[in-house]
Amino acid sequence: MFSAGAESLLHQAREIQDEELKKFCSRICKLLQAEDLGPDTLDSLQRLFLIISATKYSRRLEKTCVDLLQATLGLPACPEQLQVLCAAILREMSPSDSLSLAWDHTQNSRQLSLVASVLLAQGDRNEEVRAVGQGVLRALESRQPEGPSLRHLLPVMAKVVVLSPGTLQEDQATLLSKRLVDWLRYASLQQGLPHSGGFFSTPRARQPGPVTEVDGAVATDFFTVLSSGHRFTDDQWLNVQAFSMLRAWLLHSGPEGPGTLDTDDRSEQEGSTLSVISATSSAGRLLPPRERLREVAFEYCQRLIEQSNRRALRKGDSDLQKACLVEAVLVLDVLCRQDPSFLYRSLSCLKALHGRVRGDPASVRVLLPLAHFFLSHGEAAAVDSEAVYQHLFTRIPVEQFHSPMLAFEFIQFCRDNLHLFSGHLSTLRLSFPNLFKFLAWNSPPLTSEFVALLPALVDAGTALEMLHALLDLPCLTAVLDLQLRAPSCLEAFRDPQFQGLFQYLLRPKASGATERLAPLHQLLQPMAGCARVAQCAQAVPTLLQAFFSAVTQVADGSLINQLALLLLGRSDSLYPAPGYAAGVHSVLSSQFLALCTLKPSLVVELARDLLEFLGSVNGLCSRASLVTSVVWAIGEYLSVTYDRRCTVEQINKFFEALEALLFEVTQCRPSAALPRCPPQVVTVLMTTLTKLASRSQDLIPRASLLLSKMRTLAHSPATSSTHSEEGAEAIRTRATELLTLLKMPSVAQFVLTPSTEVCSPRYHRDANTALPLALRTVSRLVEREAGLMPG
After folding, report:
1. By three-state DSSP, how is residue 697 classified?
2. Whole-model pTM?
3. What are the residue ranges of helices labelled H in 486-529?
4. Mean pLDDT of all residues in 516-545
5. What long-range pairs does 670-678 form, CB within 8 A, spacing at least 24?
């Protein structure tokens, strides 16, 4: 993250109020109106940029200041550094109605690029994108050999192509394709001229040398991004920029569908020739511009692959080799989709590349575009897709989980290629334990990506194991941290008592088995406060919500029961990260209710397990939200209305269990070891007991006596030490309402256990139907009862 000094500056910038900003802008206006735009102006513009970019919301600048910033940006003699700052400030303000930059009156190519960046940040409000694109194209058409450099404008053109592909007309697209061919294929092989060395420099010393390869050898083939030199000419810069926009342009200018090109003759002629030097034949020059561009793009990518075999002398060049390989493979994939004849010519080279990089940990990022290529063209390429999958999902997450960039790209790869997994989707789903290693280590940036990916990973066969894995995610983070940062602690992994648990937690694939990791929770408790573990713990509730949204789409009745049991069983077996249990319990409680809504008969079918869950008050206060949901679900769904198998005996058993639980909760005294029980638990317990009594009227006397005791207890001074005044009042009011209902058993059953017909909307809209009438009657009785209560 940021250093302490940078954090301090950002904090100060965010704290500046509008009045202070207005005064500061007035000072900047005076500086911009002066004849000499000196260091003070530069410093003030830097401060203004920090202020308006440090907040998420837009800062409003005075119109005078905005107009002066635009005017300064357009001054021909203005220092470049000031113009860059003016453009950056105006981009931060975009989109804005107060901007009125003139594209047509700007002549300098560097200024054009800055003005264009502001206009493109505006969006396409007044067809600015088209205007910018047409302006760049006019510069392309009119440029003379001695004219201004276009290397500042080509990145703008690349942006226009992405934002508004329909901007270019057919003849303009043809012109750009021709220029790209020239820049990619015919850039100079001599380095740029050095700056003048002064009086003692000699003409011989200023002569440029040839460009070299990354290993220091003199380049004998055409110039590419991987060619090295001390200084570069304009056409060499254009070569680099042309390659950076090549893939986007090919996608824009390609045919509407594969196979539309007349490529049979050329494919037969070229066969499996993979030389990158053989493409400048006279026959190739006769190709139409777009096909010629594809041919040159193919040669360029082949040359990059050949250059990547060289041993770079500098680490920066080594990193550049890998980045260029990624882009080269992606460009080849586009070419092969547009023209199948390229596929046969690419395969042997890419297979050799795959064999070379799959064993090199430093080149692991290249494997993703290669895997995409083979999976996209698997049948035509006769590639074993299963082997590609297995290598990706088995080795890479285990070895590279700690690489944030690779983690993001890997999950993006999974999301973008779901349509290619078709027959191999089970391989992806079974690999979720390995994918979760990326998530455990990089949870903040990857959470949203996994929320989008989880629906594809969730399967009825692995849902239970995946839920366990999500609940154990902070524990996995702690283990990965231990494994990566503390080699001296690896003895713990070999301890027979814990070895099996570590192996289970670090398994590469779904095993179909589940393990209780409570011993590991205790062992790893000292790491619960680590920042990475805490971040992971904060992400789990969001991931659980996404999981349940997906699993309910595929779960049958049996799986719903198992999920409900898992929620109950794991509620007291969570890794002790600060605040983790509270966040998870909140999700589990809402999801338990969602499962009951999905399958109301769950309460009857899991009666024994629910009774066991309620049988102990241990940990109730820490799991209050889940206990409340379980109790509410019992009162709502333990009825013949939802399940004909519900018996009076079951109702009586639950009544006794809940009665005992209510007694335990209300008799407990607060202490350091026993936190207070929320009043919501008490009110829900009373309501559920009343509902059960209305369904088994033999229980009404017991329920009435219990409610009377609760109302009396709520008035006692002892209650004030357990609950707040608001909590005691809520308990007292609820007890009074429920007592009044039980005095009229038929009304109580009607209100507390309404039939399906009564729950229909008509009973809530029509004032003459039974439900509103019953509610009005009960309300009057409750008010009367409350009026008779002693003060």
Report:
1. helix
2. 0.81
3. 491-494, 496-505, 518-523
4. 93
5. 670/721, 670/722, 674/621, 675/621, 675/622, 676/621, 676/722, 676/723, 677/620, 677/621, 677/624, 677/722, 678/621, 678/624, 678/628, 678/727
